[in-house]
Amino acid sequence: MIEEFKKFALRGNAVDLAIGVIIGAAFGAIVNSLVADIMSPIVGAVTGGFDFSNHFLPLSSKVTADSLVEAKKQGAVLAWGSFLTIVINFIIIAWVLFLVVKLMNQVMQSEAPRTPALTKQEMLLTEIRDLLQREQT
User: Rounded to two decimals, what is the model's pTM?
Assistant: First the structure.
């Protein structure tokens, strides 16, 4: 059973998946930091420091607090500001991932082997072939 587990654990697919998960988690931390530490402050500066995360709608008359944390302790609230913040963060993260994938595709295309230019002999042979095809039709 131990040998069977070794085969499973060290098989290429399992190792590749583990590496992908670890790199994905690290990349997720980078993207989250980009959003929280760079993009969100820029959005806050553009909107005059407006922070949606603390906006809520009380669903109970018992809720009199001014902050979301305190309001949740007092009763039911509709935390629309928190939801809106998460949606904005998702849009920013999706945009950043789109740009990263686009950049990676450009890098991969630039590394793709290019077809060499035709020599004079190859160009002449191509012309002859095309002429013969036209005569046959």
Answer: 0.56
